[in-house]
Amino acid sequence: MKTLEVVRAGGVVTATLNRPERRNALSLTMFRELRELADEVARNPQDRVLVLRGAGGTFCAGGDLTPEPGEPLPEFDGPPSAPAAALSSIRNDVGRAAMALHALEKPTIAAVQGTAAGAGASLAFGCDLTLAEAGSRFGLVFVRRGLALDFGASWSLPRLVGLKKAKELALYGDWIDAEEAERLGLVNRVFAPADFDAGVADWAERLASQAPLAVSIIKRSLERGSEASFGEALETETVGQAALTATNDFTEGMQAFLEKRAPKFRGS
Which end of the chain is less crowded, N or C, counting CB atoms within 10 A of the terminal residue's CB? Predict the structure, then answer.
């Protein structure tokens, strides 16, 4: 891939946004490659966790909707007053990448160092888990550029912090540090710089060791639960639980418990 550096180890797929000269701004190519990677991870049973991070000590400075050198402008059939490349990209590349990551049945982790701004913040908050290095900062700065939210932030933000706080963060576009983001529930854990890489690796490896089918069902049931009635949530739990009791992973989990050892889940 041109803009992503992808490494696989022990079920953990680590994708590094690799445009350090642009502070890892999300180009058209990067949006497309994120979508392709999410689809690839979804298909590969050996891939259990997707970790996103940035090269050069910065997570992502936001969106960069200009084409890569030599790449033609995308075709566009919208209003003549609108920037053709931007609108076509938002409809196609940005939206499809966001949907592919959201639809991924496997857990995603954003590992944030430095700055996560604009679409970079949306990307970080849109992952299932967000880990941050002390000293990093987040900014939904769209309003300061005369833009609306993107990459699914209008959906994820109010679910994470509540509608009132979401409006404050989005309408003012103020920066918040990692510690404040953790306090608000936008970040799961803040690590000291010296502990960041080891902390991210530990969280990813522990998640990759869990039963993949159970992880997938738990992830989806939690997401659906925020919009379901209590009865609907119970039904979702019942169906998921019944399905999982017929898996080899359930048998392995129970056997490991009885034998007082760590389970070895295979995703079947």
Answer: C
- Whole-number pLDDT of residue 75: 45
Mean pLDDT by 10 residues, the chain (268 residues): 95 97 92 96 97 97 72 47 55 86 96 97 97 98 91 94 96 97 98 98 97 94 86 88 88 88 89
The whole-model pTM stands at 0.89
The token duo for 249 is 């992973």
Q: How far is 111 from 95, CA to CA, in rounded Å?
A: 22
Q: Which CATH number is correct for 4-208, 3.40.50.970, 3.90.226.10, 3.30.360.10, 3.30.9.10?
A: 3.90.226.10
Q: Which of 24, 7, 14 is nearest to 204 (CA)?
A: 14
Specify the CATH number of the domain 212-259.
1.10.12
Residue written as token pair 């010296």: 194
Three-state SS string across the chain, please?
CCCEEEEEECCEEEEEECCHHHCCCECHHHHHHHHHHHHHHHHCCCCCEEEEEEHHHCCECCECCCCCCCCCCCCCCCCCCCCHHHHHHHHHHHHHHHHHHHHCCCCEEEEECCEEECHHHHHHHHCCEEEEECCCEEECHHHHHCCCCCCCHHHHHHHHHCHHHHHHHHHHCCEEEHHHHHHHCCCCEEECHHHHHHHHHHHHHHHHCCCHHHHHHHHHHHHHHCCCCHHHHHHHHHHHHHHHCCCHHHHHHHHHHHHCCCCCCCCC
Among positive and negative, which fits the CA dihedral 15, 90, 151, 48?
negative
Contact 215, 207 (CB under 8 A): yes
